[in-house]
Write a structure and sequence with these properties.
- α46 (about 1100-1115) links the parallel β24 and β25 (about 1120-1125).
- This protein has about 1150 residues and is an alpha/beta fold.
- α19 (about 485-490) crosses α20 (about 495-505).
- The protein is built from 47 helices and 27 strands.
- The longest helix has 20 residues, at about 770-785.
- The model has no long low-confidence stretch (mean pLDDT about 90).
- Strands 1, 2, 3, 4, 5, 6 and 7 form a 7-stranded mixed sheet that branches. Strands 8-15-12-9-14-13 form a 6-stranded mixed sheet. A 5-stranded mixed β-barrel has the order 19-20-21-23-22.
- This is DNA polymerase III subunit alpha.
């Protein structure tokens, strides 16, 4: 490039979140087009892209100038006054010292500034000024703000202070962004003269900048929409909200020369600054705290001692000499690659977690292939037992950092991170930042909102954008693929505007947050290595560089993952122990297995050959079992009928798009229905455990080793090239593979066939180490469900205690799948969470809607060892004001007070006086107004309870459903089941079973839970309705022809009978409604053959007769069935039986009405 006339020193990239729109990747091209050999990036209050920009610009032949626009708290407020908002200055790193200080200042912006906007003080700026060039910030900078306010002395004083802090490195910044008629902005007009005068008076150089926010002027309107998204404003609001102009784009040197023709020195100084700045962005070697003086020897000691301890208790998969040889091999590679410290650090925090009873997963990812990791207890899978390869984890022929992904109990993961902070120092530990982007659908929604378009229209447009995998396609691609989107853009100007702006802002960054698991640990304060950021939702700082660039800076990521399943397992074990048993003891006290001494409750010690567990897998009763609870997995289990852990490992690996096509072959070969096809005799032993199918990446590596003579390291490189479809590498490897195979006696044609086969499967192959680790966790949950079903399901439900939809599925599994009784919510029997008593699952109070586990804990604490006797006793012992009225309402609706007062409606209507009574008692206690002879409140009169009658049975169920989220003590269809059976109406479970043999037309009954209506592309309405019957939940689709006549019957709480077309698609029951009618009409002529009614007092007989006579009069039907009574009064010597002389029409409604009568204990069909 020719000698430059101007260099941009103030550019905002997409990392100026929802503010900058210059994409980092596009910046080198912008520079080349403008003839600029250098450029500075100065994002607002961050260095998020400093490394990325430096590497990318250098690689493109552009000199990167690393900088930042920093908000300076320049005018401290006097006591009692509001401080002036901080104002920006621009800092540019001149050298390595300056880069270090820029990182420090960026960290100062956030750390220790809780509740404040990001800012640095003048003192912090002065303390970290070495190696930095400072631009005064232009018209909106701190000096400019004083000038705008007419405070010239303050402006002069601050300029003097900055000049002292940056000797020969302070530049007075001028900006010109002319609007219509060439007029500068008001701020520029108000400050330029003052800036120039001070610069000349103090002998300070001038510098011209253009405050760049977008690449070209034609993006101004789209950028303004972006600013509105950030500010919650609207595009068509009055102009005063706009602080930028169409001039804030990436101008050419010629355009800047025309603007500053009168001050050429200001342009020349941009070039001078660029020449003064020189920083190399080189990748650092991994930086870790030193764990021991001699890490190599310490690792060898721990590994050998650990392996000896393992081999003393586990069955050997190979001779001890083979274990020792493998250990020495791995240690040699770890040492040669310089990673002993990494292994020691990971082993240390995992050992600490285990010593503190924090559940740790057996492994995840390729790390489970390391015997050293197994010896150090980092993993709990013997790699020789599962034929796992170390080279898949750490390849001596491809140097890269090892990466252990560690699963911890979800509830206690933070404790492990806190331990690491304490051990290495809080200033040396941080999380890793991540960024969220404006993807196409979100861009359309956000731009539509700031354009004030109707929500429904924007929602419809957003839904027209197709999704590939888990992400929506780009707006450009959606326009190419979706004609309805193109038509909308062509016919409506506002839609065209929306999509134009949407494409321009799509992909820009929206927000910063922290990586779910990643933590870095340094050997020095991290702000000496990377700039730090503070997520307001976390107490722990985060790096300003994301995962990729943190590694470039030399920091090593450690993954602390939270796995809910580990929490489920621990919950179950805790409940087993709470019940007075240990993991190896069955409910009847018999031994399930013989544990090692001291490992009676170690889930890792359970046998992997348990028949009950494999029967559970084979029957697909795997609701809540890790990895295999989907309907598709259940179907695969029924076909596979696993008999060993290797089957589960294979299923975890196979059940993915592509490989799952091989599941039928695997099952047929396993059960002898199909012969195992040999690819070549030399590799049959490698594929024997997977029925001749290439399933694992490790098998690809082993085949290359055995057939073509590759080292396992070289085979891993081959696998990676195949998996990533790297053509150049593949072209080089093919002849190498064929030549190697020929040396081993395999002809070229067969070698080519095998290479092609490997190429296909390398893309689909799964990491066996990961599959094995997760298969073991799956087996552990299946073993618990098979051997300790109540405790396991309680543990599962406690992990999802606030997810009503999941609790409904689990409750159904407990009652119908496992035939286990559920004790309903009860203030005298329930804990705050799910519990187990006498083999029954006790419903947790904290699982009710709109209550909290902590609030329900107050009830459990108040109860102690003495059950509540009455509602008033409850109010005296529990401060109901602390519980809150809404949770108390839910408890009443759910029947949690039934032992104290069976009339639920009375409890609900009496809550106000009960809460007031409780408050008065507890207020007296708090005031220490205790009587000399009794407890406070003993003299307070108990309030009167409401005299209201209780709800009818179906009303009770409806109220219970509001509180619990589903029907627990009964179902609205219970009274109808006999009549429905007579009408050949099928249950959900029966329909699902029938549909397995092909599509079916059937009648079903259901209680309506909800309905959502939609409009098709043609404008026709359709709906999804959610219903339930006593055997489960289901959803029905209704198209307009049925929906129009059914809408009035499909309100929540109604009971209906539907005619449906039932099919199974991917093992999911799909129901399409043909007809819908109210249940009462559907079973009107299917009443009971008669009733037998058990009553507890003679007066109830007359009440029943009155109900029957009234019903007969309303229906006009005289006869149908007899009505018998069984009187069970306590003053009678025995039961007395009698019958009414007439016969009556008996319907489910009449049965329900009779059940609700006082004195009626039970109603049965004859």
């Amino acid at each position: 490039m020719a000698d430059p006339r101007f260099i941009h020193l103030r550019v905002h990239t997409e990392y100026s979140l929802l503010e900058g729109a210059v994409r980092v990747k596009a910046l080198p091209d912008l520079c080349r087009a403008a003839g600029m050999p250098a450029v500075a990036v100065t994002d607002t209050n961050n260095m998020f892209c400093a490394l990325e920009f430096s590497v990318m610009a250098s690689g493109a032949g552009i000199q990167p100038i690393v900088g930042c626009q920093v908000d300076l708290a320049h005018d401290p407020a006097a006591p009692g006054e509001r401080p002036r908002p901080p104002a920006p200055v621009v800092l540019l790193a001149q050298d390595e010292a300056g880069y270090g200080n820029l990182m420090k200042l960026n960290s100062c912006l956030y750390l220790g500034k809780a509740g404040q906007l990001p800012q640095v003080t003048v003192e912090e700026l002065e303390g970290h000024s070495a190696g930095l060039i400072c631009l005064t910030g232009g018209p909106e900078g701190p000096v400019g703000q004083f000038l705008q306010a007419g405070q010239r002395p303050k402006a002069q004083a601050l300029m003097t202070r900055l000049a002292a802090a940056f000797p020969n490195r302070l530049y007075v910044e001028l900006q010109r962004h002319p609007g219509e008629g060439g007029q500068l902005t008001a701020a520029e007009q108000a400050t330029e003269r003052g800036h120039v005068e001070m610069a000349y008076a103090m002998d300070l150089p001038l510098v011209a900048t253009n405050d760049v926010y977008f690449p070209k002027s034609d993006m101004y309107e789209a950028h303004d929409a972006l600013i509105c998204i950030a500010d919650g404003a609207y595009v068509d609001q009055a102009d005063p909200r706009r602080r930028l102009t169409p001039q804030h784009y990436f101008k050419t040197p010629e355009e800047m020369a025309a603007l500053f023709a009168d001050l050429p020195e200001a342009l020349e100084n941009t070039v001078e600054i660029a020449r003064r700045c020189a920083i190399k962005s080189e990748k650092r070697k991994p930086i870790l705290p030193r764990f021991a003086d001699d890490e190599v020897e310490e690792l060898r000691r721990q590994a050998r001692e650990g392996l000896a301890a393992r081999l003393a208790v586990i069955p050997h998969a190979a001779p001890v000499e083979e274990y020792e040889k493998r250990l020495d091999f791995e240690l040699g590679i770890i040492e040669s690659m310089g990673f002993p410290g990494y292994f020691l650090i990971v082993a240390d925090f995992i050992k600490w977690a285990k010593e503190h009873d924090i559940p740790v997963g057996p492994g995840r990812g390729s790390g489970a292939g390391s015997l050293v990791a197994y010896a150090l207890t980092i993993t709990d899978l013997d790699p020789l037992r599962y034929s796992l390869l170390f080279e898949r984890f750490l390849n001596p022929e491809r140097v890269s950092m090892p990466d252990f992904d560690i699963d911890f109990c979800m509830d206690r993961r933070e404790e492990v991170i806190e331990y690491v902070q304490r051990k290495y120092g809080r200033e040396k530990v941080a999380q890793i930042i991540t960024f969220g982007a404006l993807l196409s659908k979100a861009a359309v929604r956000d731009v539509g909102r700031v354009l004030q378009m109707p929500y429904g229209q924007v929602d419809k447009l957003s839904k027209l954008i197709p999704v590939e995998g888990v992400k929506p396609v780009s707006i450009e691609k959606a326009l190419a693929e979706e004609p309805r989107l193109r038509d909308a853009a062509r016919t409506e100007e506002v839609v065209d505007r929306l999509l134009t702006y949407g494409q321009q802002v799509e992909g820009l960054l929206r927000n910063a947050s922290t990586h779910a698991a990643g933590v870095v640990i340094g050997d020095r304060p991290l702000d000496e290595l990377v700039p730090l950021y503070q997520d307001p939702r976390s107490d722990m700082p985060a790096t300003q560089f994301n995962m990729k660039w943190v590694e470039q800076a030399g920091l090593v990521k450690f993954d602390f993952l939270g796995l809910k399943t580990l929490t489920v397992i621990q919950n179950a074990i805790d409940l087993i122990r709470k019940g007075g048993r240990q993991l190896h003891e069955a409910a009847d006290g018999s031994r399930i297995y013989d544990p090692a001494e001291g490992a009676e409750n170690d889930i890792g010690q359970i046998p992997l050959e348990d028949e009950k567990t494999y029967r559970l897998y084979a029957s697909a009763k795997t609701v809540a079992v890790f990895q295999v609870e989907s309907s598709g997995m259940m179907d695969a289990l029924r076909r596979m009928k696993p008999t060993c852990i290797e089957d589960i490992v294979a299923l975890v690996a196979l059940y993915r798009p592509g490989p799952m096509e091989n599941i039928p072959t695997y099952c047929e070969v396993k059960h002898g229905l199909k012969p195992l096809e040999s690819i070549h005799p030399t590799i049959d032993h490698i594929l024997a455990e997977t029925q001749g199918i290439i399933v694992y990446q490790e098998q690809v590596m082993q085949i290359a080793q055995v057939m073509a003579g590759y080292s396992l390291g070289g085979a891993d490189l081959l696998r990676r090239a195949m998996g990533k479809k790297i053509k150049e590498a593949m072209d080089a490897e093919r002849p190498k593979f064929i030549e190697g195979a020929k040396k081993n006696g395999v002809d070229a044609k067969k070698a080519t066939e095998v290479f092609d086969l490997l190429e296909k499967f390398a893309n689909y192959g799964f990491n066996k180490s990961h599959a094995a680790a997760y298969a073991v966790v799956s087996y552990q949950t299946a073993w618990l469900k098979a051997n300790h079903p109540v405790e396991f399901m309680a543990g599962v439900m406690n992990c999802d205690i606030h997810l009503t939809d999941k609790l409904a599925v689990y409750a159904e599994e407990v009652r119908r799948g496992l035939q286990i009784e559920i004790v309903p919510p009860c203030v005298n029997r329930s804990q705050a969470t799910f519990d187990v008593t006498e083999g029954k699952l006790v419903y947790g109070l904290g699982a009710l809607k709109n209550v909290g586990v902590d609030a329900m804990g107050l009830i459990v604490t108040g109860r102690g060892d003495k059950p509540f006797a009455t509602l008033f006793d409850f109010a005296r012992r529990v401060d109901l004001k602390r519980i809150g009225k809404r949770p108390l309402e839910m408890l009443a609706r759910a029947g949690a007070f039934d032992q104290l007062e069976p009339n639920r409606r009375r409890v609900l209507d009496s809550l106000d006086p009960l809460v007031a009574y409780s408050a008065a008692i507890h207020d007296q206690r708090a005031s220490a107004q205790v009587s000399l002879f009794g407890e406070a409140g003993d003299d307070l009169p108990e309030p009167r309870l409401s005299p209201v009658a209780d709800w009818l049975p179906n009303e009770k169920l409806a109220e219970e459903q509001k509180a619990i989220g589903f029907y627990l003590s009964g179902h609205p269809l219970d009274d109808y089941m006999a009549a429905l059976k007579r009408k050949k109406v099928m249950t959900k479970a029966e329909v699902e079973e029938a549909a397995k043999s092909g599509p079916k037309v059937a009648k079903m009954a259901g209680a309506v839970a909800g309905r959502q209506e939609r409009k098709s592309a043609k404008g026709n309405r359709f709906a999804f309705a959610q219903l339930s019957d006593p055997t489960g939940l289901y959803e029905v689709t209704l198209f307009s022809d049925v929906l129009d006549g059914a809408r009035d019957h499909l309100e929540a709480g109604m009971n209906v009978v539907l005619t449906v077309e039932a099919t199974l698609e991917n093992d999911q029951l799909k129901l399409l409604a043909r007809a819908v009618q109210p249940i009462d009409g559907a079973v009107a002529d299917a009443g009971s053959a008669g009733l037998k009614i058990f009553v507890e007092e003679p007066g109830a007989v007359q009440s029943v007769a009155q109900v029957l006579d009234r019903a007969r009069g309303e229906s006009g039907i005289r006869g149908r069935g007899p009505v018998q009574f069984c009187l069970m009064a306590p003053d009678l010597p025995g039961e007395v039986e009698m019958a009414l002389p007439d016969s009556y029409p008996v319907t489910p409604q009449i049965k329900g009405a009779i059940k609700s009568l006082p004195g009626v204990a039970l109603v049965e069909d004859l």
